[in-house]
Amino acid sequence: MTQNLTTPSGALSLQLQEAGPVEHQIPIVTTSNLLQFANLQVVPYYALFLDPVRLAEEPSSSALVDERLDYLLSRLDEISRLTKNWDSYASESPTRKAIGISKELLRDLDSIGAIYLPRYVFPLSGGGVQMEWEGLGKFLEIEVSSMGTFSYLFGKGFGASRTFDENNDVAKEKIIDLVAAVVC
């Protein structure tokens, strides 16, 4: 015997079936019904780094994609306000040059596609900025020095077969190519 039940609001429908000779009713719940009942939705991974209050106000995933660049630029603004000794080890404040070059790189990457934006952005002790990307079996860490030059560490593979490539004072175009190699 099958019986359909619906919540008073109509938001969730459950189908109950008798479970053989024991005569207990077992709800059959689909993932979409459960997500709907809990008022949840699937969003991109970087939504975890956005303001949860804004997520509640603006739940569409396309809005999250549009907000990613804004979030990263505001993160760089926060980083730019750090003062000397920000990490309690007498580190220099991030320089205007490092912040400006980092923002320029983010805008260039966003113009290619939001998928190219980094997962993490944080200050470095020498007055620079670091950004990180992760892909399947690949990662990229770039540093924008206090003088505005790019360095990178690129890794790929797993375990004993993992390889690394590292270089200093490279062109922005090389950084963009490496980002593409990680995210695509």
Please give a handful of descriptors for the protein shown:
26% strand, 5-stranded antiparallel sheet, 2 domains, 3-stranded antiparallel sheet, 184 residues, alpha+beta, globular
How would you characterize the overall build of this protein?
With 184 residues, the protein is α+β, with helices and mostly antiparallel strands. It folds into two domains: 36 residues, no CATH class; 139 residues, no CATH class. It is built from five helices and eight strands. Helix 3 runs antiparallel to helix 4.
Structural class: alpha+beta
Largest sheet: 5 strands, antiparallel
Mean pLDDT: 78
Order of helical and strand elements: EEEHHHHEEEEEH
Beta-strand percentage range: 25-35%
Total helix count?
5
The quaternary organization reads as single chain
Residue windows where pLDDT falls under 50 for at least 5 positions: 26-35, 39-61
The percent of residues in helical segments reads 25-40%
Taken together, the total number of domains comes to 2
Query: Kindly, what is the distance between the CA atoms of the first and last residues, rounded to a whole number of angstroms?
Result: 50 Å
- The radius of gyration over CA amounts to 24 Å
Outline type: globular
How many β-strands, per DSSP?
8
